[in-house]
Amino acid sequence: MGTERLYYTDCYLADFDAEVVRTEKDGAVVYLDRTAFYPASGGQPQDLGLCGGMPVSGVIDQDEEIAHVLGAPISAGRVQCSIDWPRRYDHMQQHTGQHLLSAAFVAQCGFRTVSFHLGPDLSTIDLETAELSDSQVEQVENRAAQLVRDARPVRVGFEEAPLANALRKPSSRTGVLRIIEIEGLDRSACGGTHVRSTAELGPILIRRREKLRGNVRVEFVCGDRALARARKDFHLLGETARLCTAAIDDLPRHVDSLRERLAEAEKQRQKLAADLAEAEGRRLWESTKPGLDGIRRRVLDVDSIRESTRALAQSFISAGQAALLVRGRDPFTLLFAASSDSNLHAGNLLRNSLQKYGGRGGGSATIAQGTLPNTAYARDVSCDLGFEE
Ligand SMILES: [Zn+2]
Fold it and tell me: Which of 165, 222, 329, 376 is deepest in the core (most CB within 10 A)?
């Protein structure tokens, strides 16, 4: 014998009693003669609540029967059950909102809904269209608001499949269909839970939309969720406005000007860093005594080799008769630069030396870069390149 689904005829039943028909897993999985617990199905998540005093963690639809997975075992007999009502009512609002929105999208734009998902914060419907414009969204939102104001009854009925006509989406099921009807708007075959009037939906807000596999996915919120979300949006905007010392309505203009100023400052910073590196390279060159061959050689240890390090090296060798070895600690990297009048080929010299110790690198005649597997040979490479330590 199957489980009687009380939510089929009464979605507002939150407390009920039932007989334990049988149990599995030593009483942790329970089958009742009847239940108001909704199992996860058709895009709507399962209910939570209590069964015989134990928390219900899973509600599984097994065709004829519904299995209740409990946090702790119970014994057979008559049990009191209660559904987590705020959670269920939220689901009823989102699910009925989906029926209404799907119908409105067909009526206003001719777009069919191909799938629905009810998430913990947001719900989505996928519309069979490649494009959805701002004005279409606004049109549907306005129509949805009107349908809520109409306070249209939402009714549950049962009809034989062949006789159930004018459904928004044809059903492939046979036998008796459960039909959810929003008066004068929509008829859908659906096993989910719904509110009894569109007035209970409250605000219906469409949010983000994205193109997905040739369809458009639309996020929406209804009822108390929409209120909470709008409140949160206002809080976030207010907080951002406070940080910017700007009015909320001025935020886009304000952020745009901030972005421009930031880009300008970044450009300035890069120019100053280049100027500084050049001056530093020049100062280093001046403070380095030429060797017997007339070449100024200098070793520089830095934390890491950056773009500014390369600029410094370029500046150092551009003064002529010069060679610079920069050793970066983290990660361990070497940069070798030699002026074109030094008769040194930076790329070849560095590559040959690094190869001897299992490292690798190379570059042009004047500037080259490379790495060593460990720092043990750093000194040997320095000596190879003509830098005495
Ligand atoms: Zn439904």
Answer: 222
